[in-house]
Amino acid sequence: MIISASRRTDIPAFYSEWMINRIKEKYVLVKNPMNIHQISHIKLTPDIVDCIVFWSKNPKPLLDKLHIFNEYAYYFQFTLNPYDKDVEPNLLIKNEIIDTFKKLSDRIGSQRIIWRYDPVLLNSRYSISYHIDKFADLACKLRGSAESVTFSFIDFYKKITENIKVNGIDEITVDEKIKITENFLKSATENNFQINTCAENIDLSKYNIKRARCIDDRLIAKITGYNINVDKDKNQRLECGCVGSIDIGEYNSCDNGCIYCYANYSKNIVENNIKNHNNFSPMLIGEVNGNSVITERKVVSNKIQQQELLSMS
């Protein structure tokens, strides 16, 4: 079983203590996003959890607590974009985030951090030339701290329609995507990054740019020394390369406030959910009540064969 922590919210940034308590107690309760009264009880014992994939824009709260996860394999999807407070209002200043990125790399190794430049959006301030320059600058500063970078272009979800309108975010044409891609590839190559895209429907194979597996069985095999038998995630888009995982987060609970976010659709609900968070609850948001039905989810390890550890340097 692979744990995703989390596509739905930034657990390392805002809920690190809760995550640590779940690891200590070896289980978590997760609501069904389609029916909050249906709750899964999921074991988190080291023999069952093949890997934890952390998604974060600020894993700083976990830096001094990583020893808690010594019995587990894990890696980070670390988003570091060039936007200011008008797009990512609640994030630390970029130099602090870059510093955290480098410190995390020093502690766990560059092979266990994937840099995400995600998503690329265009408006009057954030132009194509802006992205080309900022990507090159970040690639230079992060050189040696990660081995791969994943980028994507903004998706126009209905949930962010108002943010798109207010911020004058433009549709990105195929020609614009190609221009951005060619320049990103140049900077990535110059700084020793393997570059991939996340769930893009544009064919970039002529640039030898492939679709990423953000939840990646191949990377997990290299980290753990075990092959992993897990199918493509059927709950993700067709263009997504990820293999199956169990997400333990909850929508409308991230306080980063990014205007492009698909996981938050109500500021009031976000504020209310944050108030209802309890570090000692087995659920991320709220408590179990009388209307809840808890079901033990059958989970097993997907390790199928021990193999010699592969070098990732």
Can you tell me about this structure?
The chain has 313 residues and is an alpha/beta fold. It has one domain. The chain has 8 helices and 13 strands. Helix 3 (94-108) links the parallel strand 5 and strand 6. The longest helix is centred in the middle third of the chain and has 17 residues, at 174-190. It starts with a strand and ends in a 7-residue tail after the last strand. The relative contact order is 0.20.
- Percent helix among the residues? 25-40%
Structural class label: alpha/beta
Average predicted confidence as pLDDT: 94
Number of helices: 8
Adjacency order of strands in the biggest sheet:
9-8-7-6-5-4-1-11
Q: From N to C, what is the helix and strand string? A: EHHEEEEHEHEHHEEHEEHEE
Strand fraction band?
15-25%
Main beta-sheet strand count, sense and barrel state: 8 strands, parallel
SSE topology sketch:
Elements: E1 2-5, H1 11-14, H2 16-25, E2 27-32, E3 35-43, E4 51-56, E5 74-79, H3 94-108, E6 113-120, H4 128-142, E7 148-153, H5 161-166, H6 174-190, E8 194-197, E9 210-211, H7 217-224, E10 226-228, E11 246-247, H8 267-275, E12 293-296, E13 303-306
Helix pairs in contact: 4-6
